[in-house]
């Protein structure tokens, strides 16, 4: 396919000002920012789960009109179906698409192996640790062989150690399967570690304030000094933005008070 | 020597633990049943002392004796069977209809806004008030009783389903839709399993409503076999021991289904759905 595989332009009330960006095919892009900056809204629109008030979203050369069509999503709290086993969860999307039982099983097992969960395929979600649940939910998305993988703060509910292990794993999986990824997080180092491009968003109202291109060769190491420098830079920028936003709000409050 | 002492100690510990377990069980039993035992004692005292007319209140022994006779003569078993069959049938019809209506209309604002208040309103009317209507429609027979039982189950079941539909996690629905589930597939594989834990509670409630509606209807419509008919017959011939024996049977059936069927079902579902720790 040619260069631009997705163009987004939309306004979602004050939650997100009209925003535009493009993600190249096979690129790993992160949307980073404080809570309330509209990053999850943005992702939901790309997924086709939310509709923009204005503007449009295009994926793989077609306008986004609903979920599916080469896009898969990983949610913050894993959102596994509690009544299904790990394998049942991973097979679910294939069932929805009417894939035959044998092929379903084979592809699900392959996805489960990719995230190293092959020893717990028959367990139910509540029998798994938080990290394992999130692996299962990544497998559930990957089994669809998505061209675009959307991840909404997938590691934010995990403890720091598990989070580090899983971002390492995600880097490996991405290098193996090379989908386009749009990754939403509020963790700067995670974003810098994983991404080709990081869009820094600011809150109140949400918009992209800065874009970073990261060309550190992979596989990367989270302790890489270059990443730490980058994180420092982003943090400074975010602080300035938060202060600006606070100031703007204070000004508005003053005007209102008068 | 030390091992022998250790072995003796361990065996002693087991014995102590076993007797402690037995004591705890006995205390638990007493705590739950002391009031029932007290009622039985007072009942026995009052009748044994001859303070009340045995035609108003027979002794516990007489009631149990009558129950034994009724059971060995099998007549009561036939009635019990007929009642239970009707209960299960009426309940099943009510459950299926209630859940289907709940799911169908729970997914649509317009349908729910229109239909839910009607069901809630009907739930405020005791089911038995519809019995004369059912008799006019279906005749003075078992079908009318069955219809009333099904209707009595249907109302709380539909309401429980509505309630459950609103408690489905939005993220779970989004996850399903993002994976390409929609329409009937989404309803069958996501919405329905997601509401199962709440439905189990509804099933239990529906069962008790069915049981009440059924007994009331059977006492009026006495043509067909059934426990309600036996109760009414007992009243007609003034056999108070029969009446009380049948009440005892109704009580036991209620408690047994609750404990053996629904409590187990609930435990199983809570375990399978991972709700054990959450409760």
What does this structure look like?
The complex is a heterodimer of chains A (258) and B (279). Chain A is built from seven helices and ten strands. Chain A is of the alpha/beta class and 258 residues long. The longest helix of chain A has 33 residues, at 225-257. Chain A is globular and about 65 Å long. Residues 1-7 of chain A have low confidence and may be disordered. Chain B is an all-alpha fold and 279 residues long. Classes of the chains: A alpha/beta (258), B mainly alpha (279). Chain A binds chain B through residues 44, 47-49, 67-68, 71-73, 75-77, 79-84, 92-93, 95-97, 124-127, 137, 140, 144, and chain B through 169, 171-172, 174-182, 185-186, 189-190, 193-194, 196, 272-274, 276-277.
Q: What order do the strands of the largest sheet of chain A run in, or round the barrel if closed? A: 6-7-8-3-9-10
Strand content of chain A: 15-25%
Give the helix level of chain A as a range of percent.
40-55%
Q: Kindly provide the radius of gyration of chain B, computed on alpha-carbon positions and rounded to a whole number of angstroms.
A: 25 Å
Globular, elongated, flat, extended or rod-shaped: what is the shape of chain A? Answer: globular
Number of strands of chain A: 10
Structural class of chain B: mainly alpha
Taking the alpha carbons of the first and last residues of chain A, their distance comes to 56 Å
Order of helices and strands of chain A: EEEHEEEHHHEHEHEEH
- Uncertain residue segments of chain A: 1-7
Order of helices and strands of chain B: HHHHHHHHHH
The fraction of residues assigned to DSSP E strands of chain B is under 5%
Q: Share of helix among residues of chain B?
A: over 70%
The main pleated sheet of chain A reads as:
6 strands, mixed
Number of helices of chain A: 7
Mean pLDDT of chain B: 86
